[in-house]
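stage 2 :: seqdesign
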């Protein structure tokens, strides 16, 4: 193996050192009895609980429902945030009309809207999707707006000098310059999406990871509660990996993402 290949493997393994160390410590403390199962079940107990849920089909059903809720909310809130970000970033009139109001609403925590959302939508799917959409809207809106505003004015002026139409100027100059900021907003929104989903599924759900963990809590099934918690972490990590892969595909010219490949 070449020196560069060895460095690449080290770079890939390094992020997993801390999780492996924590898992090993957890296992040893459980094995020696210093960490009682009532406080934190041992890793084998959690794996056994996950396997039982998997064999019964409940695990896939709850994960599918939660994932569908999360990404539906992301699609709704993200598309609105992206559209308004482009609008206020490109138009001074829209900026004056909309941005101040959006910034005021942004200061309201989306989870504080839960009582009002229940009044509006009841406890159905609409309430959960609405909360997630509100949560993801602001990171995408703010970063899209910032990305548009951060594009070098010299480049836009040069595009106009070369006779680019407004559509061509947007597609060839403004959008490529704003994409890094937009993708940062997407990563932030993905994190907010899962956090909001946890609270949203506490609203009288009959399915989903949140429902599964709530039911387990009622019956003091700590191992299943931990399975649900780890599922949220794994799904969040998977979403982050996908967003990073998207960044590397869309930004091959960016030195920061070139370094991530090495």
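stage 2 :: out
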């Amino acid at each position: 193996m070449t020196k560069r290949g060895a460095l690449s493997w080290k770079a890939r393994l390094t992020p997993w050192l801390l999780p492996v160390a924590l898992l090993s410590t957890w296992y040893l403390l459980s094995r020696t009895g210093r960490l009682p199962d009532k406080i934190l079940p041992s890793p084998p107990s959690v794996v056994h609980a996950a396997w039982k849920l998997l064999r019964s089909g409940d695990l896939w059903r709850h994960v599918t429902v939660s994932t569908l809720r999360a990404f539906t909310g992301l699609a709704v809130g993200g598309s609105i945030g992206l559209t308004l970000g482009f609008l206020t970033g490109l138009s001074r009139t829209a900026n004056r009309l909309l941005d101040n109001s959006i910034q005021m609403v942004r200061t309201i925590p989306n989870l504080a809207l839960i009582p009002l959302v229940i009044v509006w939508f009841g406890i159905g799917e609409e309430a959960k999707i609405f909360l997630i959409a509100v949560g993801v809207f602001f990171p995408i809106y703010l970063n899209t707006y910032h990305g548009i505003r951060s594009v070098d004015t010299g480049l836009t002026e040069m595009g106009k000098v070369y006779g680019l139409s407004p559509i061509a100027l947007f597609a060839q100059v403004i959008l490529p310059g704003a994409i890094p900021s937009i993708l940062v907003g997407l990563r932030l929104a993905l994190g907010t999406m899962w956090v909001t989903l946890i609270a949203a599924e506490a609203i009288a759900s009959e399915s989903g990871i949140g429902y599964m963990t709530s039911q387990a809590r009622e019956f003091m099934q700590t191992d299943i509660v931990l399975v649900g918690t780890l599922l949220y972490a794994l799904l969040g990590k998977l979403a982050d990996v996908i967003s990073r892969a998207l960044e590397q595909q869309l930004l091959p010219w960016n030195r920061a993402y070139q370094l991530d490949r090495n």
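stage 3 :: structure notes
- The two ends are 15 Å apart (CA to CA).
- The chain is about 80% helix and 0% strand.
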